[in-house]
Amino acid sequence: GIQVEQSPPDLILQEGANSTLRCNFSDSVNNLQWFHQNPWGQLINLFYIPSGTKQNGRLSATTVATERYSLLYISSSQTTDSGVYFCAVEQVGYSTLTFGKGTMLLVSP
Amino acid sequence: DTEVTQTPKHLVMGMTNKKSLKCEQHMGHRAMYWYKQKAKKPPELMFVYSYEKLSINESVPSRFSPECPNSSLLNLHLHALQPEDSALYLCASSQEGVAGTTDTQYFGPGTRLTVL
User: What is the 3-state secondary structure (H, E, C) of chain A?
Assistant: First the structure.
């Protein structure tokens, strides 16, 4: 099956800092989704981004499908950004998502 | 409305109990999913229902039994579980994308299950 690798595994930031999270995948994909899981377990879909760039407030994401990676940018981080960020991909020929292991982000005041 | 609801929020059960988890969405999505998530791990897919029919069963033990009574509801019936089944159980839904691919998945808040 497809391999999905996220980096870094852990990240600690001061409030107001910027960060970039990376997702590499080993095969062609139909789509890629970024999720944020808050400390209470709720998974929120941040982006559906099979290719190109999207922005939503302080968050933006870029997927370069031909080079098999995606980046999630968080600007001016806030304590509420803390949690785990998952990248999930749907491999071509499949109809389910494969999740990476996640990046755990802690934003301190 | 992009909400998926799950009940109960927490569940404690013994190994001989029978219980059910419930999931509901009113977004008109025709694909619904059950995931299991252990602490500090990503969600693992258990089952997929597409147009109310079970389309994917990821080799889940028979002590987990899914049911899709209608297009808005998804149940997970639990019987004779083991302590290692303790986890966060997440429900999700999505539209079907182009050519049977998946679209944006929306997750419920989950049920935290403890098996004693």
Answer: CCCEEEECCEEEEECCCCEEEEEEECCCEEEEEEEEECCCCCEEEEEECCCEEEEECCEEEEEEHHHCEEEEEECCCCHHHCEEEEEEEEECCCCCCEECCCEEEEEEC
